[in-house]
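Q: My labmate handed me this sequence with no annotations at all. I'd like to see what the chain might look like in three dimensions before we decide whether it's worth expressing. Could you predict it?
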Amino acid sequence: MTAPLNPPPPPHERSAQDSWQPPGAGAGAQAPGSQHAEYAEYAEYTGHGWYGQDGPGMRTEVREAGVIAVAVALGGVLLGVLWWWLAPHVPLVGDVVEGKWIVYLKDTEGEQAVGVDGTFALLGLAFGVVSALVVFLLRRRGGVPLVVGLAVGGLLGSLLAWRVGVWLGPAEDVVAHAREVGRGVSFSAPLRLGAKGALLAWPFAALVLHLGLMALFGPRDPEPEFPDGPYQAPPVA
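A: Here is what I predict for the chain of 237 residues:
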């Protein structure tokens, strides 16, 4: 039996020949330009595929959220005016007892005070719906900073509306007002928000509605695209 004409190479040479080489290396190596193009295509896939960042940067999103928060908060001026205009008046009466002025409710069983809080809460819900809808139509992209800016703007708007309504309403010094109108004459009490939880109506409604709109009509994440053919590692520079 004759020996093979081409004996196998030594172990150290065979391990070097059989070792894995990246695409484009070895005897069938491609031109340098084609290797660079292949690597650029791989980088483009990995950079804009699964691991890419879509949308503006975080700095831009924070800036937009700040602008939205300020714009929404300024809407509190309109809410305060509407609250002062639509809220029911709480009638008070002044009287003199032992030389001292006292002020009491004219209708002790009336529900005007509850109506004042309810009017503020309903207006806050309406403003929350409008602000969430407007922000969604202007910025369909969404994002955590945008939602936070919307909620913070709604809370600041509620606080501003509360103070504007109190400022536009009747005088807060009820004793001086009673002396001014006279004994036994009815006058309106200053606007007061008894239930401070009504301040959360605006940001809560805006937050819930915006998240719901984003879940139903917001942009969807693109499906990952797999490259054609078997996976190949990028060539070694």
